[in-house]
Write a structure and sequence with these properties.
single chain, alpha/beta, Quinone Oxidoreductase, Chain A, domain 1, Rossmann fold, 2 domains, seven-stranded mixed β-sheet, six-stranded parallel β-sheet, 10 helices, 27% strand
Length: 326
């Protein structure tokens, strides 16, 4: 099969790779859409030791079951493979499973390929009227749905439901969309890239600003650098909540003294539960997250160029989706 293979720092090759084999209980999926995630970019830059070269990256995907009696079934893929039997899984917190795996990390190759194998429980059926390129957004949208759900659960019921999202990439935009779907009408996105701000305003209908002044009850850091954590610490209102999603760098930025004196809740959020994924997929199918027509689509064969364009800041769209068969 053809795949986009990470071969070293800032090096990707579109080439032949060993054909994936489905194990018992798994389906072989013909991938038709696979999005580039920020974590793929971290690996590409050599910043993620969990993703050593050579490796097929990609975990935001949708496609069609290739084998067996369900051949032809259109599905979006929950890439988080868990044991299903530990205390975390039994409690519906599969994202905390100690033995969790995710495609695009060893031992599971990713979805920047023509095929991938996945367990049945990781698949959600996509209605015929929903494009698979839109269904592939379920994974990044679920990350933000999970963060928004936890943050709103932690917010004191007497506080206003106003929010700031730091970062206007796919996760930040998705956080804004998720919060609006959950009843938060006043959401601003802070994004330093002028081209992306314009895209968010004109193509996504979002309130996008270069700098945010003031304080809000709820802040989502969708970037995860020391500077954005410092901004989140300053922007959170007394008694407010910071939901931290981004994994840009490991340390620095939080104003612990202010957070302590002002009783600001900090929540680290990782991926999503299986229910979050299903709920997000249904919200996509129902149109509750908007038209979702903002990704840029390219062939997987142009994947290396797509990564270079993202690296240089030349892409205004919050998401690039790659098609292995284009």
């Amino acid at each position: 099969m053809k795949a986009l293979v990470y071969e070293g720092i800032e090096t990707l090759a579109f080439r032949e790779a060993p054909m994936v084999a489905a194990q018992p209980g798994e389906h072989l999926i013909r991938i038709r859409a696979s999005g580039i995630c920020g974590s793929d970019m971290h690996a590409y830059l050599g910043h993620d030791a969990r993703r050593p070269a050579p490796l097929i990256l990609g975990h935001e995907a949708a496609g069609v079951i290739e084998d067996g009696p369900q051949a032809g079934r259109r599905v979006t893929i929950n890439p988080l493979v868990t044991c299903g039997s530990c205390a975390a899984c039994a409690a519906g917190r599969e994202n905390l499973c100690a033995s969790r795996q995710i495609i695009s990390m060893p031992p599971r190759e990713g979805a920047f390929a023509q095929f991938v194998a996945m367990p049945e429980r990781n698949l959600v059926t996509v209605p015929e009227d929903v494009p698979l390129s839109k269904a592939a957004l379920a994974e990044p949208l679920a990350v933000s749905w999970h963060a928004a759900r936890l943050a709103l659960k932690a917010l004191h019921p007497d506080m206003e439901r106003r929010a700031l999202v730091i970062g206007g990439g796919a996760i930040g935009l998705a956080a804004a969309l998720a919060m609006r779907a959950m009843g938060v009408e006043d959401v601003a996105i802070q994004e330093p890239n002028a081209a992306r701000r314009a895209f968010l305003a004109y193509h996504c209908g979002q309130q996008a600003v270069a700098e945010f002044q003031g304080i809000v009850p709820l802040v989502v850091d969708a970037v995860g650098y020391a500077a954005t954590r410092a901004g989140a610490s300053a922007a959170a209102a007394p008694g407010g909540v910071i939901a931290h999603v981004g994994l840009g760098e490991d340390a620095g930025g939080l104003d612990i003294r202010r957070m302590t004196l002002q009783e600001i809740t900090f929540i680290g959020t990782y991926t999503y539960t299986a229910q979050d994924f299903r709920d997000t997929a249904q919200a996509i199918f129902d149109g509750r997250l908007g038209p979702l027509d903002w990704p840029e689509q390219r062939p997987l064969s142009d994947g290396a160029a797509a990564f270079r364009d993202l690296r240089s800041g030349a892409v205004a769209a919050p998401k690039i989706i790659l098609d292995p068969w284009a």
